């Protein structure tokens, strides 16, 4: 009889190394939070409210990462005898201005900003640090975002069709009588 551990773990084959803007770290746990932005309207003398959907809420990622000593220096920046180098590289990226790319092991990469992080080191766990990071979805700046060409084309086509309908409707109206041309 087989058990669940005998099944092929396809998800393990697609795991990605965790990183933020190229600064790699080990990922102990991560979570994503989002939902819908709902405004609840309640009216006087009405028993039923109205919930208005205002779109998807921005995604927020909570990540617990760590850097740890490695028995020997490998060619990889994450696997070194001095854990402080990958730690410092990650901290520099977390404190850098502007958005960055967050790659989590089981999720697609995201363009995010890091509003806060907490780095914890304990003497009893020498050669090891935990970094709790919060990331927020960067999204698009509405002042610099240009609509897609397909959207702009659709708007132009719709307005031209509406203009044609109005001109056709106006041409079907009878002309008003001429006023004061014959004396």
From TrEMBL:
Top-level division of the source organism's lineage: Bacteria
Query: What are the DNA circulation N-terminal domain coordinates in residue numbering?
Result: 15-106
Q: What Pfam family does this protein match (any one)? A: DNA_circ_N
Check the record and name the InterPro entries matching this protein. DNA_circ_N (IPR009826)
**What name is this protein filed under?**
DNA circularization N-terminal domain-containing protein
What species is given as this protein's source? Bradyrhizobium septentrionale
């Amino acid at each position: 009889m087989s058990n669940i551990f005998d099944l092929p773990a396809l998800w393990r084959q697609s795991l990605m190394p965790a990183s933020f803007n190229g600064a790699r770290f080990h990922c102990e746990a991560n979570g994503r939070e989002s939902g819908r932005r709902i405004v609840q309207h309640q009216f006087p003398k009405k028993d039923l409210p109205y919930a208005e959907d205002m779109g998807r809420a921005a995604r927020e990622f909570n990540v617990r990462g760590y850097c740890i000593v490695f028995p020997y220096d490998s060619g990889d920046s994450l696997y070194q005898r001095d854990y402080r180098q990958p730690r410092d590289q990650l901290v520099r990226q977390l404190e850098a201005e502007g958005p960055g790319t967050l790659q989590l092991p089981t999720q697609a990469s995201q363009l995010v900003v890091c509003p806060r992080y907490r780095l914890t080191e304990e003497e009893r766990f020498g050669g090891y640090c935990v970094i709790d990071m919060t990331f927020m979805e960067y999204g698009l700046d509405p002042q610099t975002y240009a609509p897609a060409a397909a959207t702009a084309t659709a708007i132009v086509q719709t307005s031209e069709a509406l203009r044609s309908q109005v001109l056709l409707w106006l041409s079907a109206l009878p002309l008003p009588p001429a006023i004061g041309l014959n004396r």
